[in-house]
């Protein structure tokens, strides 16, 4: 819900959705039993309402094992998550970093990471995802921390 929205707007929409469906183990059932119009009225776009429903369906049919997701490797988690409509590699990496606290994630597609590397390494051009991966390889096994620094360096003049 927070993707491509201001934090305040996203928090408002998230709060409305939680009021509508709640959270916890019953949330997937409640989502699939909530109409598209109700999700839209809570503030979700058409696409995000469909994505939330698809996520709930994957949880309910067992194709996304949310209870044991943390036991999988980073690559296995990414592979499982990108099967859900609306969840791409970047979103899966953010989940690994911020929800599961995985220490060695480098979101090579992230524009902020690319700009941070450009600034930190005084590069004339924005690095490609491949160049980000090459630079970030040196940060292993703590690429998540390196990523945090790349985001923060953009705040420093």
Task: Summarize the structure in words.
There is one protein chain. Helices cover 57% and strands 0% of the residues. By secondary structure, the chain is an all-alpha fold. The chain has 2 domains: 7-98, Hypothetical protein, domain 2 (Endonuclease III, domain 1, Orthogonal Bundle), CATH 1.10.340; 111-153, no CATH class. Helix 5 packs across helix 6 and helix 7 crosses helix 9. It is globular, with a radius of gyration of 18 Å. The mean pLDDT is 94.
Which key phrases capture this entry?
single chain; 157 residues; mainly alpha; Endonuclease III, domain 1; 9 helices; 0% strand; globular
Describe the SSE topology.
Elements: H1 7-21, H2 27-32, H3 36-41, H4 46-60, H5 74-81, H6 89-98, H7 111-120, H8 129-137, H9 143-153
In short:
Helix content is 57%, strand content 0%.
Per CATH, the superfamily of the largest domain is: Hypothetical protein, domain 2
SS-based class: mainly alpha
Terminus-to-terminus distance: 31 Å
The appropriate CATH architecture of the largest domain is: Orthogonal Bundle
Beta-strand fraction estimate: under 5%
DSSP helical segment count: 9
Low-confidence stretches: none
CATH topology of the largest domain: Endonuclease III, domain 1
Number of strands: 0
Major sheet attributes: none
Coarse shape: globular
User: N-to-C SSE series?
Assistant: HHHHHHHHH
Which CATH class of the largest domain? Mainly Alpha
Helix content: 55-70%
Mean pLDDT: 94
Instruction: Evaluate the radius of gyration.
Output: 18 Å
Task: Provide the number of structural domains.
Answer: 2
């Amino acid at each position: 819900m927070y993707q491509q929205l201001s934090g305040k707007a996203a928090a408002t929409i998230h709060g409305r959705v939680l009021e509508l469906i709640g959270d916890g183990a019953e949330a997937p059932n409640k989502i699939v039993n909530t109409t598209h119009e109700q999700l839209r009225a809570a503030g979700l776009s058409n696409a995000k309402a469909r994505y939330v429903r698809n996520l709930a369906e994957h949880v309910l049919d067992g194709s996304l094992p949310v209870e044991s997701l943390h036991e999988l490797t980073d690559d296995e988690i990414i592979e499982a998550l990108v099967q859900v409509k609306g969840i791409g590699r970047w979103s899966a990496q953010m989940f690994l970093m911020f929800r599961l606290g995985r220490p060695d994630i480098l979101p090579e597609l992230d524009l902020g990471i690319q700009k941070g590397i450009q600034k930190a390494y005084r590069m004339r051009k924005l690095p490609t995802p491949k160049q980000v991966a090459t630079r970030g390889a040196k940060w292993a096994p703590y690429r998540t921390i390196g990523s945090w620094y790349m985001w923060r360096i953009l705040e420093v003049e």
